[in-house]
Each structure stands twice: as structure tokens, then as C-alpha cells.
Design brief:
The chain has 167 residues and is mainly α. The protein is built from six helices and no strands.
């Protein structure tokens, strides 16, 4: 559980400090969704929402200069859907986890846009969704797939090394 919160906090720091540095053609990956998918893999929907989504949204609201409560609501919804989708699928498959990360990023973008429009008259939903949220979701899914593959390769190297040296 402690390593889950360390991962959430590190991804939160990465998102808030260097998130825009990873942008390609205006689309940046959502490291918060990646952290939610990594930590929610064995939990249920409500457990993921309460344990991971709410604290992540609260941290996001404390450091953002936007509307307080928006991050809390959206990250709780993200945690719920990440837990729900990971519980319903075969989550050991890298492609399904990457697809879930992309889908949760789409949910994140759509929920943010709807809440901004309903309460504050934000940007045009469809334009922003198709030109920013969809590319961001694809980028997040690809990055999740690459991270899972790199993690598996490193794990294999460590296992083979330990077996070779009899550790």
C-alpha cells in the first residue's frame, strides 16, 4: 500500500512539474491516469475511487489555481472507472491495461470539459475533446504500453541475473 502511494505521489509530481515537457503536438500524457491504472489493478471500483482517486484529486486541487473540487471529482470518477474496467478484464495483458489507460483518459477529459462547461462556461466541448483529449488518450495508452513492456523486460533481466548467480 505504501508503494502505491509513493507511485501516486511520484506521478503526481511528474504531472504537475514536467507534464507539459512531454507534450507532442499539444497532447501530453496523463501520468495521473497511468498511476491510477497501475495501482487499481487488483482493487474494485469503489475501493480504487476512495483509496486512490480521491487523494489524487485532493492533491491536484491543492496545487492547481483552477476551481477547487474539479480535480477531486474527476479523479474520483477516474479511480472508479479504472477499478471497474480492470476488475472486468484480463488485466495481465499489456494491451488491455494500455487500452484502459486510454479509455480512462478519455473519461477524464470528457468529465473535465462537461463540468467546466456546466458550471463555468468553459471551452467548446467537441473541439477540445477531438483535438486535445483524443490525442492525449492515445499518447497515454502508448506510454502505458511502453512502461509495462519496459518493466517486464527489467523484471526478466533481474530474474535471470539472480538465477545465474544463485541468489
Amino acid at each position: 500500500m505504501l508503494k502505491d502511494f509513493v507511485l501516486l505521489f511520484l506521478c503526481f509530481l511528474l504531472q504537475t512539474s514536467l507534464g507539459r515537457e512531454f507534450a507532442v503536438l499539444g497532447a501530453a500524457p496523463n501520468f495521473l491516469v497511468i498511476a491510477l491504472v497501475f495501482t487499481s489493478s487488483k482493487k474494485g471500483a469503489v475501493d480504487s475511487m476512495i483509496r486512490y482517486g480521491l487523494p489524487l484529486g485532493l492533491m491536484q486541487d491543492f496545487v492547481s489555481s483552477g476551481y477547487f473540487g474539479l480535480g477531486l471529482t474527476v479523479q474520483a470518477v477516474n479511480g472508479f472507472f479504472a477499478g471497474l474496467l480492470l476488475k472486468q478484464t484480463y488485466s495481465e495483458n499489456y494491451l488491455s491495461k494500455a487500452g484502459i489507460a486510454a479509455l480512462v483518459t478519455l473519461i477524464d477529459g470528457f468529465a473535465s470539459l462537461v463540468l467546466l462547461n456546466v458550471y463555468y462556461g468553459g471551452p467548446n466541448i467537441f473541439t477540445h475533446f477531438f483535438f486535445y483529449t483524443v490525442p492525449s488518450a492515445l499518447y497515454t495508452g502508448l506510454l502505458m504500453f511502453a512502461l509495462l513492456g519496459a518493466g517486464s523486460a527489467l523484471k526478466g533481466v533481474f530474474v535471470r541475473t539472480r538465477k545465474a548467480y544463485g541468489v
